[in-house]
Write a structure and sequence with these properties.
Helices cover 9% and strands 37% of the residues. It has five helices and 22 strands. By secondary structure, it is mainly beta.
Length: 352
């Protein structure tokens, strides 16, 4: 990185945490190791007084307690969730924000009730185009005081797999993950999955709030509208082999057969392959991709046997999806540092 991380960015980094890459070994990420981004403060919610309000362009407005929601038909889905700013710290020129490296990701089993079923019960009126999800977390961003709120197109909600989750990995949501209720939208970057949900409103026109109008958009200049960020681009991460050097985190590996392992995911189509390079991306070899045993929305594991000879290496891995998308070698730049899915690079010293 060419620029020093500021004190303000360090404050953000202290509040939010990433997945230690060695934790990629778990199919389902332990809750405390799952990445976490909190825009404002974690709300103090009195669950006995809390209600989810469902309104807007609906025939039958609803006001539901957590028990009401738990009593509804439930599903459990394994979902890989990634922050849209993952990899931001690697882009140049430097982008001032949460300084993610590559670890802003995790896979969890979320249990809850489908959003589509709830809206069907409420009855959607003619003219509806979007569904707005509003959380209890409040703050000031871009000079605007706001509750964190994001919207989705109505068709996306009705035909997708979005759920209102009240459990993660078999337990009630912890405070930092949105207790008592959060939205989980499989395949989309994490900013879409609103936490500490307080209301759902069906809208007759697109929501023009800050998190939709300004934040989470790809643009090359501040004064252009840009394109909204939606589904995750393909990415693969390697479990760091060997042992680390404390400060640099470079790896030390014993010579001989070395099994490289990792995870790959995407939100746009499906992962169809992973390639591995041991020479910094000059040449590539096909890794073995495991079965898609955890469902469409969870990452897939891969492995590659490397005959490691003494010397210094730069290991890379890249994912390919069914739509023909392949991770780029260099980080793409935009104003927010979003969707940087450039290949991971791991410095390795092989010793006898």
């Amino acid at each position: 990185m060419g620029e020093v991380i500021s004190l303000q960015e360090l404050q953000l980094a202290a509040r939010n945490h990433a997945l230690p890459l060695e934790a990629l070994r778990w199919d389902v990420t332990p809750i405390g190791l799952h990445y976490l981004l909190t825009h404002y403060d974690i709300p103090d919610v009195d669950v006995d007084a809390w209600r989810l309000e469902v309104g807007g362009l609906v025939e039958r407005p609803l006001s539901l307690s957590l028990d009401d929601i738990r009593a509804r038909p439930a599903v459990e889905t394994a979902v890989t969730m990634e922050c849209a700013g993952n990899g931001r710290a690697h882009v140049e020129p430097h982008v001032v924000s949460q300084p993610w490296l590559l670890e802003a990701v995790g896979t969890a089993r979320w249990r809850g009730t489908p959003v589509a079923g709830l809206l069907a019960e409420a009855g959607i009126r003619d003219g509806a185009v979007e569904v707005l999800f509003t959380g209890l977390d409040r703050g000031v961003e871009g000079g605007e005081e706001q509750a964190y709120a994001r919207s989705l197109r109505l068709a996306e909600v009705l035909t997708g797999d979005a759920i209102l989750a009240y459990e993660v990995n078999g337990v009630s949501l912890p405070p930092q993950h949105g207790y008592p209720l959060r939205l989980v939208v499989p395949g989309w970057y994490g900013m879409t999955s609103v936490k500490w949900l307080s209301s759902i409103s069906v809208l007759g026109e697109p929501f023009d709030g800050y998190q939709m109008r300004h934040s989470y958009r790809r643009r090359q200049h501040e004064d252009e509208p840009g394109e909204p960020i939606a589904r995750m681009a393909p990415r693969s991460l390697m479990i760091p082999p060997g042992i680390p050097e404390f400060l640099s985190r470079s790896r030390i590996v014993a010579a001989g057969a070395c099994k490289l392992r990792g995870r790959a995911w995407t939100g746009e189509s499906e992962i169809v392959g992973v390639d591995v390079s041991t020479d910094g991306g000059a040449t590539w070899q096909r890794a073995e991709l495991d079965d898609d045993s955890f469902g469409r929305w969870a990452w897939r594991s891969w492995s590659f046997i490397w005959d490691a000879e003494p010397g210094d290496y730069e290991l890379c891995c890249r994912a390919r999806d069914a739509a023909g998308n392949v991770q780029p070698l260099e980080p793409p730049w935009n104003v927010g540092g979003y969707m940087n899915n450039a290949v991971q690079r791991v410095a390795v010293s092989v010793v006898e």
